[in-house]
Amino acid sequence: MKPDWLNDPVKLPDQTCASLASARQGQLTKPAGSLGRLEELAIRLSALQGAEYPSIEKIHITVFAADHGVAAAGVSAFPQEVTVQMVANFSAGGAAISVLAKHNEAHLEVVDVGTLREPGDLPGVISQRAGAGTANLQVEDAMRVEQLTIALNAGRAAVLRAKERGADLFIGGDMGIGNTTPAAALGCVLLNADPGQLAGPGTGLDSEGVAHKAKVLREALSRYDNLNNQPLEALRCLGGFEIAALVGAYISCAQLGIPALVDGYITTAAALVAVREQPEIRDWLLFSHQSAEPGHQAMLKSLDANPLLSLGMRLGEGSGAAVAIPLLKAACELHNNMATFADAGVTES
Q1: Do 217 and 119 belong to one domain?
Q2: Claim to verify: residue 310 and residue 206 sit in the same structural domain
Q3: Residue at 1 is within a domain
Q4: Closest Cα to residue 265, out of 184, 323, 333?
Q5: Which of 81, 109, 317, 333 is labelled catalytic?
Q6: Which domain holds residue 40?
Q7: Pick from 68-82, 89-103, 136-150: least confident
Q8: Are residues 162 and 243 in the same domain?
Q9: Does the annotation mark 57 as catalytic?
């Protein structure tokens, strides 16, 4: 049974503010279009924030952590206990996203949606567990309906916290050893793609490991028919708790009117599920970077997404999105603070 809030309407971008922002861009002391995508970003953020002068000042980052039963199938180069160890590392400030959040003066929290072992009471870590990891999707459904609901609600709760803090940007991150396998499984179903196209190295598999991952995916997918038009059922059968939480977060961002900056492969898989469930939320998603994972490009193409960066990153955690934050800030600063031709006494073309 789906949570009732999934049926809440999605907020519409403010086209009046978009028009005002577009007109201002045409008055700034530069040739039209000369700032490229930075101009587009400013106009887009104006529409999403309902403000002629957009800003990126209060950034909320939530990293969702969970384990995956499919790790038992040997689809990751790292052991499963790394997930909970990394939760402790996030809390201690030693992870990449911890450093980037501090650098960008962003609020960072971690939500344990279902690590194999509970991390205990750690600063900045919230427990909203759907279970001790998902079941092994190679041989059975990844989660039960009630577990899916808990995970979706965890994403909703994170966005509600962001709203309470007055956030003008939400970033979702992921941590879960083996989670490129459920991400690829969801991509295969929703894009009608072969596992050989979407299976990638993840945390560092060699070619033999990638071939094995594709085999595991084929065995998992062989148990299901007609999931293509059932995105939440595909999520339940093949996803992960942290991916489900991200789905809940992205839908909630669109409902509550908070722009979401999507990170890499795992978060884009969640975005794909969310958009297939509610297509109108696509307007609220900005895409930060193109991951080195081979399946990411196919997902981005399906979402008509043109990411801001391509740095060969494949870490997850929300790190790629955090690296892109300065671009959004620059777009706002230029839009808000450049002089117009009239202000500067500069002759227009």
Answers
A1: yes
A2: yes
A3: no
A4: 184
A5: 317
A6: 12-53+335-344
A7: 68-82
A8: yes
A9: no
